[in-house]
Amino acid sequence: MSLSILVVGSVGLDSVQTPAGSRVRTLGGACTYFATAASLYDRVHIVAVVGSDFPQEHLDFLRGRNIDLRGLQIVEGKTFFWAGRYSEDLDICETLETQLNVFADFHPVVPEDLRAAEYVFLANIDPDLQIEVLQQMRAPKLTALDSMNYWIASKREALTRALGMVDVVLLNQKEVKQFAGESNLLAAARRILELGPRALVV
Hints:
The strands form two sheets. The chain has a seven-stranded parallel sheet, sandwiched between helices. It has a four-stranded mixed sheet with strand order 3-2-6-7. It has seven helices and eleven strands. It has helices spanning 30-38, 56-64, 127-136, 149-154, 156-163, 173-180, 185-193; strands spanning 5-8, 12-18, 21-28, 44-51, 67-75, 81-86, 93-99, 119-122, 142-146, 168-170, 199-201. The longest helix is centred in the middle third of the chain and has 10 residues, at 127-136. By secondary structure, the chain is α/β, with parallel strands linked by helices. The protein has a single domain, classed as UDP-N-acetylmuramoyl-L-alanine:D-glutamate ligase (3-Layer(aba) Sandwich), CATH 3.40.1190.20.
């Protein structure tokens, strides 16, 4: 029985520094990581954008995981790029560089037959784009959203709307407190749940 999983978010190239070593321009993006993990359970459909420089080997990897790429737009230009450095305990990540590239003009288009997907995950992207996706869906059984401090600071109004449209929200402790303007984690979580989601995963 198919779970009908749809994920929308970034597929990109990452340069990452960790205590264990470094990787340059490797396959990355929130959509990529979710889809790869979820593909262990069922077929995953992704909606994202990459540039004409996106390596064929990465497309082959995703297809090899039985990930449906019909919703992946390949457009002229450079792929989204992110560079970061993780702390010794991997708890803190410092962003060194972000190049939106083709992602700057991205508007997600969900293929018609995927608008009936039962499970929808909105990976960490602009909340206005997350809302665009939700407005294209018919009647999903479960919707989940991930976000971050950047969107809390720069797109609070849109993020507030998006939080009220989903079932599950994923934020870390700092993000929960930042969004709610509350130092007590439990009180901050309650404020977010008051907006409409059924669950908050911290």
